[in-house]
Give the backbone structure.
Amino acid sequence: MSGGTRSPSIPTADFALGDAQGAVDRRLASWEAANVGRRLWQKDPSFWPEAPASDVAGRLGWLHLPEELRAKASELSLFAAGVRHDGFREVLVLGMGGSSLAPEVFGETFRSGGAAADLRVVDTTHPDALRRIAQRLDLERTLFVVSSKSGTTMEPNSFFDYFWHLIGHAPGNPGSRFVAITDPGTPLESLARAHEFRAVFSGPPEVGGRYSALSVFGLVPAQLAGAPVDRILGSAEAMARACGPSVPVLENPAVRLAAALGELALAGRDKVTFIADPPFASFPKWAEQLLAESTGKQGRGLVPVVDEPPAAPASYGRDRVFVLLESAEGPSPVGKLRAGLLGAGHPVVRIRLNDPVDLGGEFFRWEAAIALVGPILRIDPFDQPDVELAKQLAREAMAQHGRPANLPAGTSVPVEDAAALSAAIARWSSNLEPAAYLAVQAYLAPSVPTSEALESLRGAILERLGRATTLGYGPRFLHSTGQLHKGGPPTGRFLQLTDHPATDVPVPGTDYTFGRLIQAQALGDLRALLQRGRVVLRVELGTDTAGGLRALERVVHG
């Protein structure tokens, strides 16, 4: 199975799988006999025995998105040109999970600083972050994209209430500064019509949120950001053809990737560690949701590890597989890591990309591969059964005003109590399984200094404990890795970080504030993890977030 994909029109991939090679070869041989490629495109429910037939029939619409959306590329281009003509220079996507992650990849990858709008994503409910965003915006030149598949997601609806209140009394029609992306017939569509939004884009109901990167949920923001959408879709079409129903499995890029990831996971290598060259550095943030939410259930799953601080190859555990996204153009920092990883005995999947537009094909490759991993792990890759639990408990916490009552002793400690914190960290990190992973869950306001401090803390945890680490801002990660945390392998240890906002921000037209909302989301998540028997420690950083993170890192260092 060594060597790359033959087609010159798609990125090549090579697989160095070590001891797992035999199992992967057997899987591919059985899949060739079972006509897996054809069954994928036929949406054959018998291939996914753990999934209801309705899930299979209603969740594979993404297979045809590259062709369908390419026919609409000129329409999207005309819409974006009209937005630029009317003077909008900033686009704010108000969304969560599948509605925000692909737009973020497009915005960061194709940020040009030229005539296109500067695209940013709002997916935090922390009042300090929202207040900073509002203060720096040029409201008259900002287009707001409210994106929600169901049209009922609490966070985007709250964001809309907040920003509509800020500009709702401006001269003219404030609705002309808003765009909605949602499924047909949702409450968001009704709201957009009632408020005379500039446009409403209808998403395909048969495409789940995490599979929607190549739908209007990803491509409308991409076009607004100036990304070459037609070329991106061309890349996706080429990959779809390469993964077509009549392609032999040994030549099918998605099938090969699925067999490798699935068999490695069965062999205990379930920590899929992404390392990407700079042109493609944002892609793993999108892949994180796809892997975690699709596979993390029934005590099994792929654990994506994204943006982890580097370590010596020999220090990584035997539960890892490395995915290298390497630039085929010019020097590749990632390419230099491959020999060291292979020398240390780690399996490596290397994908060599020629151009950022190749990400279109990678969206398709990974969507198809992760759908195919489902039967290997004996799970339904299209549902997310544990997501609702945290939402339900967050709603209950909202009714209690987010007060962390009735938590088990030692679950929550203030950072200023050094002795209690040191003891709590020792308990939290004791008796780790070899396959454990450590997840930092930061219910904090995203910023460059805070992210740098969190990465430093993550590095300290990795150095001290020698296990895979993940990091996510809350509530953002609830819509990406939250399913994995509760339904996936029971090997996670969770470090939840909270603080006290400097000033709270009300959600206009409601009886709650963003501060109350994020407190309730953190508490609901904490209780959901405890209900699932996970090991969780909550550290309250107080009003000095930066100082609290430094103090916590000192304790972790010991």
In short: Residues 1-8 have pLDDT under 50 and may be disordered.
